[in-house]
Design goal:
Blueprint: H1 11-21, H2 23-26, H3 31-41, E1 49-52, H4 59-62, E2 67-68, E3 71-72, E4 74-75, E5 86-87, E6 98-102, H5 115-124, E7 128-129, H6 132-141, E8 151-153, E9 157-158, E10 169-175, E11 190-196, E12 204-206, E13 208-209, E14 211-215
Helix pairs in contact: 1-3
Length: 217
């Protein structure tokens, strides 16, 4: 993988960040439960990202909590079904409310690959693509990870159509240019959007992790 693998603040600090943002309330958890879970793990989770399951804290709830400069995060207007993007069947998501994602990497080395090309490459490297909600959690903890010309896709989340096939859209996080339906007032805002699974973009990597583990609340 690339040299963009991230380090994170201690889990206790990440827990306080989620509490500050009110993520625990959206997930139906108390602040005490979140703190206790992080405390029990101690230093065992050093370097890992603390996340809440997407069914408890969906993307539509998390995206407006993103900030870049004085701009608030948002989901593009033509992605009203954002919360229906679910983990791929190959992803074993822990069944605990809180869990850890280790070895998080922005995947800059896969920039200008299509999602259809990147997924088998990640699998071959024993990497697991990030979910959209995990990507948002990452930017909540590390806003600096979104950089102009170095943003990322989260192809662990996909939408299945009624016939069981995958919708061609793949979710991503990047920085709005304030054009089109985004509106000029959203220029420089963190943005949840999508790209076609067969298209390539030089400025989008493919975020992934080395694994996930459950974290009892």
């Amino acid at each position: 993988m690339s040299e963009t693998t991230q380090t994170f603040t201690p889990l206790r600090t990440q827990a306080e960040r989620l509490i500050e943002l009110g993520v625990h309330e959206s997930a139906g958890l108390s602040a005490a439960e979140v703190r206790a879970a992080a405390e029990r793990l101690g230093d065992a989770g050093e370097g890992a990202l603390l996340a809440v399951r997407p069914d408890l804290a969906p993307a539509s709830v998390l995206a407006p909590l993103l900030r870049r400069r004085d701009r608030t995060g948002f989901v593009v207007t033509d992605m009203t079904d954002v919360d229906l993007f679910a983990p791929l069947g190959t992803i074993g998501l822990p069944d605990t409310p809180l869990y850890l994602v280790s070895g998080v990497d922005r995947g800059d080395d896969l920039a200008n690959w299509s999602p259809d090309e990147a997924l088998p490459a990640l699998t071959a490297a024993s990497r697991t693509p990030l979910l959209l909600t995990e990507g948002i959690h990452w930017v909540l903890q590390r806003p600096d990870v979104l950089e102009r010309n170095h943003c990322f896709m989260t192809i662990g989340s996909r939408l299945r159509k009624p016939d069981g096939t995958l919708d061609a859209r793949t979710p991503a996080l990047w920085i709005s240019n304030g054009t089109g339906r985004d509106g000029r007032e959203r220029r420089e805002a963190p943005k949840v959007g999508w790209c076609w699974a067969g298209n390539r973009h030089t400025w989008l990597g493919f975020a992934s992790g080395s694994g996930r583990r459950g974290l009892e609340s």
